[in-house]
Amino acid sequence: MGDYRVFCVSLVVFLLFLGNGVNCEDPYRFITWKITYGDIYPLGVKQQGILINGQFPGPQIDAVTNENLIISVYNYLREPFLISWNGIQQRRNSWQDGVYGTNCPIPPGKNFTYALQVKDQIGSFFYFPSLGFHKAAGAFGGIRIWSRPRIPVPFPPPAGDFTVLAGDWYKRNHYQLRRILDGGHNLPFPDGLLINGRGWNGYTFTVDPGKTYRFRISNVGLTTSINFRIQGHKMKLVEVEGSHTLQNTYSDLDIHLGQSYSVLVTADQPAKDYYIVVSSRFTKPVLTTTAILHYSNSWQRVSGPIPGGPTTQIDWSLNQARSFRWNLTASGPRPNPQGSYHYGLIKTSRTITLANSGPIINRKQRYAVNGVSYIPADTPLKIADYFNIPGVFSLGSMPSSPSWGNAYLQTAVMPANFREFIEIVFQNWEDTVQSWHIDGHSFFVVGMDGGQWTPASRARYNLRDTVARCTTQVYPKSWTAIYMALDNVGMWNIRSENWARQYLGQQFYLRVYSPAHSWRDELPIPKNALLCGRARGRHTRPL
């Protein structure tokens, strides 16, 4: 479980330390990170990377359901910095989400301590730098949330547990990529693909013959869907972003931007080395990279052609996505079966339709949702909301259905009520695959298909056993529909996981509001919260 010190401290001591409310009954893990620049050579070319404790990718985070993570981040860069936590729901606590809509950046030479609780969660996720285009320089890493000892897991303990962080990569540094985007242009085609920060055959996973291993695979790339496969081996899918799945077997998996999957792989082949292959999807040309699956008793290196995979076939990917099903009898983070939550029997209170587009605004390439291209405010929205600072954003600035007028720039925020149960339809009229993420929540992917969504499309919804997750794809000229319980008060980012599109405006914030203003619904502002913009000079709260 790593080198973290795990113990419980009293709530009084913790309040003195941070001024934040987290449950004392659950253990604490204290982690210290130093963020620095450093030389990396992921594609054989020297680049300036962003390292965490000297590592690229960053250190693995391990936690058990409900544990508290106290992560002190020291910023030794020459620029402001933030870390966000893809898939960690931050229950009642969007103050810790680590995106610019909720947090002031950590200034150069300063530090900030995050206080997270992985409340009622299990599964495979990752963290990443959320400001500017830092994600193109590193500072990402895996997160594993383990089940509590008494909670049954629907498969025997594997002999080992591997994290696979895969995605596209550029030889240009993040400053150059950002200048391209700021100049009103889209990014060029990526230069290659990485597996755990390495290029061709640069990383090795060692297994013992006859044993079964868990691989947690995340697409941490910037612009490209990927396909993952292991030469000569089958993969049994067991978990998707915190949901235990029906254990179907696959020869390869499509993994879209921001998504995470867990598979079991048994070392049941003749003892030698095998290719682990990652290739790009829906691109021309097709990018490919490899790692090595090494049998511990093997003296034979990888050989033969690299196993091929799907390239531009959309129907193949759509049918595979529809085959992912919730394991209704398995426990999740709690002992009760996942299927005891009957999402398909809950009446939705409203339908929100979100359509992506790529407009030209002020003679520059932008991306938009419902005709609104997001621009950051001078003050984080959550902090402005807490202090009632006028003029930072306006509720209702994000329409709940597509606009047919000209696209425009706006700090877009959509209001929503705590405990609503809503339907969201992602409509993609473009010819590229979209990948959408929602912070603070998981949702049920009830349907996806080609063409225009209409109310009649609901007849094809899966209302029984679709997976709950936090990131979903939308295929070209297609739609994806989700059901989501707004059970988490806060200011939550809804964004494209294509980092160029996110940077150029394909995102907004959902303000989930409770009039009770109770600590039962939302934790208070942390005592150590950084204040910037129009909130500079104000005070958080006394101890």
TrEMBL record:
Which Pfam family name is an example for this entry?
Answer: Cu-oxidase_3
> Which UniProt keyword terms apply here?
Glycoprotein, Signal
Q: What is the lineage of its organism?
A: Eukaryota, Viridiplantae, Streptophyta, Embryophyta, Tracheophyta
Residue ranges occupied by any Plastocyanin-like domain in the UniProt entry: 35-148, 161-298, 380-515
Looking up Gene3D superfamilies in the UniProt record yields: Cupredoxins - blue copper proteins
**Protein known as:** L-ascorbate oxidase homolog
MF annotations from Gene Ontology: copper ion binding; oxidoreductase activity
The organism encoding this protein is: Populus euphratica (Euphrates poplar)
Q: Which residues form the signal peptide?
A: 1-24
Domain of life, per UniProt, equals: Eukaryota
Is the keyword Iron in the record?
no
Membership in a protein family? Belongs to the multicopper oxidase family.
